[in-house]
Amino acid sequence: MEALNEIIHQQTRLRILAALVGLDDDEMIEFPRIAKSLRLTDGNVGAHLLKLEEFGYIKVEKSFVDRKPKTMIGITLRGRVAFAEYVAALRELLAESKKLSFARETKSTNVAAPAETAKSSGEKFSEPESDPDFLD
């Protein structure tokens, strides 16, 4: 099994890439829109964008519009591939977890059906009385 990409695995960077992967190849999104949609501070998003850019997962284009800075963010092909590999590794991890869980269930005793177990062993079994305040 392939290890999870630690750069992407960090929650904020994962959320950023998940938002960007939905864009078309040539599409970009404004920096404030990412921060607002993820409900994060500009500083927090900025620090994580730098890390993602350092690894070549995103592209950042800065310009000025009416003398105001404008930062546009997009995902690179390398970022798309890394994200797809991360998702595949996560799916593989979950599939292995299900296999282990299933193997454990088949080895354990039948606790889900005590009435059936009791009947097959000849023991007496009666259903417990229901308690209307049980979940209160």
Question: Could you walk me through the main structural features you see in this protein, from its secondary elements to its overall organization?
Answer:
The chain is α+β, with helices and mostly antiparallel strands and 136 residues long. It has one domain (6-107): Winged helix-like DNA-binding domain superfamily/Winged helix DNA-binding domain (Arc Repressor Mutant, subunit A). Helix content is 55%, strand content 13%. It has a 3-stranded antiparallel sheet with strand order 1-3-2. A hairpin with a 2-residue loop joins strand 2 (58-65) and strand 3. The relative contact order is 0.14. Residues 130-136 have low confidence and may be disordered.
Name its key features.
alpha+beta, Arc Repressor Mutant, subunit A, 6 helices, 136 residues, three-stranded antiparallel sheet, elongated, single chain, 13% strand
Q: How far apart, in Å, are the first and last alpha carbons?
A: 44 Å
CATH homologous superfamily (4th level) name: Winged helix-like DNA-binding domain superfamily/Winged helix DNA-binding domain
Radius of gyration: 25 Å
Which CATH C-level class is it? Mainly Alpha
Number of domains: 1
Structural class: alpha+beta
Q: Could you say what the CATH architecture is?
A: Orthogonal Bundle
CATH topology: Arc Repressor Mutant, subunit A
How would you characterize the largest beta sheet? 3 strands, antiparallel
Helicity range:
55-70%
Report the sheet-strand fraction: 5-15%
Total DSSP helices: 6
Low-confidence region ranges: 130-136
- Let me know the average pLDDT: 83
Give the strand order, joined by hyphens, for the main sheet: 1-3-2
Compute the number of strand runs: 3
SSE order, as H and E? HHEHHEEHH
Name the overall outline: elongated
